[in-house]
Amino acid sequence: MAMHPLTRVLLGLACILVGLWLVAPTLVVVPMSFNENKSLAFPPQGFSWQWYQNFVANPEWSTSFLNSLKVATVVAVLATILGTLAAFGLDRMRARSAGLLRMLLLTPMVVPGVVLAIGIYAVYLDARLVGTMTGFVLAHTILALPFVLIAVQASLEVFDKRLETAAASLGAGRIATFRTVTLPLIAPGILSGLLFAFVTSFDEVIVSLFITSPYMKTLPVQIFTSITRDADPTVAAVGTILLCTTTILIGGGLLLLGRDRRSGL
Amino acid sequence: MSETGKQRGAAIDLSAVSKAYGSFRALDDISLHIEPGEFMTLLGPSGSGKTTTLNVIAGFTEVSAGSLQVAGRSVVGVPAHKRNIGVVFQHYALFPHMTVGRNVAYPLSLRGIARAEREARVKRALDMVRMADFAHRYPSELSGGQQQRVALARAIVFDPPLLLMDEPLGALDKKLREWLQLEIKRIHRELGTTFVYVTHDQEEALVLSDRIAVFNRGKIEQVGTGRDLYDAPATLFVGRFIGDSTVLRGQARGDRSGTALDIAGETVTAPHKHTGDNQPVMLLRPEKLAIRRPGLDRRDGDNRLSGTVSEAIYLGSGSKYEVALRDGSTAIVRSPLTDQSFAIGEAVELCFRGEDAKLLADDSTADTTLT
Amino acid sequence: MSASATPSERATRPRRSWGALALALPAMVLLVVVIGYPLATIVLRSFAEPQWGLQNYSWFFSTPVNLIVLQRTFVISAWVTVVCVICAYPFAYAMTAVGPKVRLLLTLCVLIPFWVSGVVRTLSWVILLQDSGVINSLLRSVGLDGVRLIRTQTGVIIGMAQVLLPFMVLPLYSVMKGIDLRLVQAARSLGAGPIRAFFTVYLPLSLPGVYAGAIIVFILALGFYITPALLGGPRSTMLSTLVQNQVLSLLQWGRGGAMGVVLLIATFVLLALAGPLMRQKHKQGTR
Q: Distance between CA atoms of C104 and B16, rounded to whole angstroms?
């Protein structure tokens, strides 16, 4: 559609501004992470790697990072299995019951975080799950499950079920059909569900703030308490690391996705 | 693949097969015998039961009643993947995540065939459908016709004694369809496998088949060669469905010598006796009707009907006319090019010999089902 | 898996409801244990502590501070939603109009913040907005007075809108992607000017995306905790902070629970109201 040149310029300008607003503020953590002073005041002074060293050497930071990694890995696997099973279940149900169950399974996405947090905290206090690995895994899994469900359901929706009939006509039983046809074709959905689940757990902070204990902290909890407690530039170093990892993962993923399309997937 | 020379096709016997979905009878007491190596086409309008019959044979649908035998053995209750029947679908159903070669190799891997033999058979199958150069492509890189040929290769590569095809050319354009019809015929000749082919296109059925089973409303109306169906339709539905036809309806009178129809004041006769309760109608093929200017001498034995030309179509090899008769119905006439031509609106006379008219029982549903 | 189903018989395909239910069962059990039971506990406690009755609710609605915070929560959420719609609309439209390379760049702009931890992003806003932060340093370097941004409502809105913007862009983009631009051309060919064509054709067709995005943003904003907690001050407290305060600092489970229930009900009422608007998506958005 032909666009008026003025409209085009205005649109481009708006785009650049919004794009900057989305990305640029986060980048401010990068210069701060190399600050020589123990301060988050702008502009940073000098150059030093000490906050990165502190992240590795200080057990408060490194332990919470490892905790997050452990929890997120278990959650990713668990949520992917449960979510994928549920997606298959819903796919084979009557539309009405599937819609109802789906709505229920998606509630963790819309229930305000704090309400959920105090509820889970109350139950965990009774069950002695506060500050335990199990506690974190259970809470994060149910929070991550909706993302898996959505991703897998989306790929099941575009999956042509007639291919299963075709596989049967060629001699494939139920299990062979699932392994050779269904699974490879919905794998992208399952994988993106897995990634979503991992990130959801790795980032989760509200519920984690409530069910944490001095002995079991996750990284976002550590970041949060660090910000509220003092102006330790280690948070900026952590932020920079997370930012770089994410950018590489997402950028690589998008490029890979683009290539896959061309090769016929 | 037919170098063994032995009879490779399987016979199929459906007897008294019914399939009901709730109160809807998709198949109503169907019996059909298909010879080994035969090319049988199931022809009918959509919803007539032809695809359900195919699905029953393939094992995608279980029968509600009746028996089904393939190569003399009952397959009722045998799941689809254990029937060893090749199926070609209208929507190709190629696996998008596998190359052409892996798609065709798929049924062989499932059967645990060793790699070397697998590759040889994949190559042979792809050669047969002239797609050997495409083995490393993905289905999404192929045209519809190419995909369907790959699907065909995949369905024959494991040497099934029976190949089912569900409107395989339905999504392709006319030229490609005509070419692939000939390819399918060639492959059938070379393989000697029994082919069961579903289509709603009567021309396609005539081109391909040894015999055709005409389906209507969950029942088989007639089974026979294309010539049988065209020259001697058993029912008005079959007569209307196969080829062009003119149906004459009128006040019927019968005597020993034949049947006469009174059509808006004109009388036509045929030397056949009509039996049955329904009103008789006469069915005439376009080439059995002659068109001429009125007032010419009446030849002996000729039936005459007057009308006006309502449509004139030049076909190259001749002309086709639609003529509005006095009672408001339309007759279809084909005349060779050498004849004189007629203009729309011109008054004409249609003549035919009584013995060329097929006397059939009227069936008011025959017209409505066709639309 | 569906060997007994065929293309033409999808509608009559037998539903193995019990097997299907079994597949969804583990997820449902976890949902009941980790979401259902805790929420029920909170609702129960809001009526039962310290003794049975409606005391917690009457306390909530009769204490001016609570009402002010409740109102503020809605006002801030509304502002955040408005800011998001205004910023996301041209951006999402541009995503549909540009070539694949620029689209990849724009998509990255949306996805990277989407995936970067919310705590980290809020941290950057703290660095930017604080009294010794980037914005105030810049202002002072050109000789202007600093402005107070952190611990103000404006600061909270700026930070929240940035964190929530991707939730607005993505649904908008997915609806706009499906709009047939030939419809706009058709409107132009029928005599509508570009502005008129936009307001009479494009905007109405994109509205389902606006509704979907706005509802998501508004609901998430209502329950926001981290950003207001770090960027906000006493004069920009939102309901979530109040709930946290009641439970963790004052150990008033009943009152905290009652506040939570209010927040929960507000969320679900909004969702229910939005239902019909979102359903329009299926009627229009797919053309």
A: 61
CA distance A74 to chain C (A): 15
For residue A88, which residues of chain C lie inside 8 Å, CB to CB? 20, 23
pLDDT of res. C87: 93
- The pLDDT tens digits of the residues spanning C50-59 come to 889 899 999 9
Sign of dihedral through CA atoms C55, C61, C66, C70? positive
Q: Which helix (H) or strand (E) holds A251?
A: helix A234-262
Subunit contact C123:A223, Cβ cutoff 8 A:
yes
Q: Does C28 touch chain B (CB under 8 A)?
A: no
Nearest CA to B83 out of B110, B65, B57, B103 is that of B57
Interface of B with A (CB under 8 A): 58-60, 79-82, 84-87, 89, 91, 93, 95-97, 106-107, 110-111, 138-141, 154-155, 158
Of B80, B95, B111, which is closest to A169 when you measure between CB atoms? B80
- CA neighbor of C111 nearest in space, from C155, C160, C179, C173: C173
- Calpha distance C123→A227 (Å, rounded): 7
> B347-353 and B290-292: which strand pairing?
antiparallel
The string of pLDDT tens digits covering residues C168-207 is 999 999 899 888 888 888 888 887 888 888 888 889 889 9
Mean pLDDT within A241-260: 75
Question: Is A67 in contact with A218 (CB distance < 8 Å)?
Answer: yes
Do the beta carbons of residue B267 and residue B248 sit within 8 Å?
A: no
Distance from CA of C286 to the nearest CA of A (A): 15
- Tell me the per-residue pLDDT of C111-139, one tens digit each, with 9 for 90 and over: 887 778 888 888 888 888 887 777 888 78
- What mean pLDDT comes out for the span B224-252? 91
Report the C-alpha gap between C119 and C132 in whole angstroms.
20
- Is the pLDDT assigned to residue C151 strictly greater than 90? no
CA distance, residue C115 to nearest chain B CA (Å): 29
DSSP secondary structure of A36-49: SSS--PSSP-S---
Q: What ipTM is given for this predicted complex?
A: 0.85
Residue B93: which of A166, A185, A265 has the nearest Cβ? A166
> Maximum CA pair distance of chain B?
79
Type of residue at B227? R
User: pLDDT over 70 for what percent of chain A?
Assistant: 95
| C7 reaches B (C-beta below 8 A) | yes
**Residue A75, token pair as written in the block:** 């959650």
The nearest alpha carbon in chain B to A187 belongs to: B97
- Count, in order, helices (H) and strands (E) of chain A: 13, 0
Backbone angles phi and psi of A128, in degrees to 5: 55, 45
Chain C residues within an 8 Å CB radius of B91: 7
Strands (E), chain C: none
